[in-house]
């Protein structure tokens, strides 16, 4: 571990790793609140909100998660030297699973939500269909699972069980 007040390359990589993790996965915890506000205030905004989710995933979450992986590899090889540690392997697997969930489930789901919301608000004056509600429930489950995985990864990275 880097000594307090000492800045070296490892400390900079650690900083970038933590910053990238916050940028990539912090939004996971905000989506349920934003969703509730948009749905209760103005359903006509839902298509734009879901398009924003898609763009945040593509332009913020994915690049930042890649930085998390690269910096994690560097730190593990520089200070730990053994990639077989359960804490490191578990955290690495979680980041890969989170990226998989993002691209295989959440982005396609947001596209379907965007399109369904556009149809619903155009044709019904703001009332949302049962299909939209089902897609929103599906998203909620996966966002909740992703949030739990983020918490587990943070625990593994901080506590480093078995290190």
What would you note in describing this structure?
The protein is 83% helix and 0% strand. With 163 residues, the chain is an all-alpha fold. It has one domain. The longest helix is centred in the middle third of the chain and has 39 residues, at 86-124.
**Gap from first CA to last CA:** 13 Å
Listing every helix as H and every strand as E from the N terminus to the C terminus, the arrangement reads HHHHH
Overall body shape:
elongated
Mean pLDDT: 90
Query: What class, by secondary structure content?
Result: mainly alpha
DSSP strand content: under 5%
**CA radius of gyration:** 19 Å
Q: Which parts are unreliable, with pLDDT below 50 for 5 consecutive residues or more? A: none
Please give the oligomerization state of what you see: single chain
- Count of helices? 5
Helix content: over 70%
Please give the domain count. 1
Main sheet, how many strands, which sense, barrel? none
Count of beta strands:
0
In brief:
With 163 residues, the chain is mainly alpha-helical. 83% of the residues lie in helices and 0% in strands.
What tags apply to this protein structure?
single chain, 163 residues, mainly alpha, 5 helices, 0% strand, elongated
Architecture blueprint of SSEs:
Elements lengths: L8 H17 L1 H15 L4 H35 L5 H39 L5 H30 L4
Helix pairs in contact: 1-3, 2-5, 3-4, 4-5
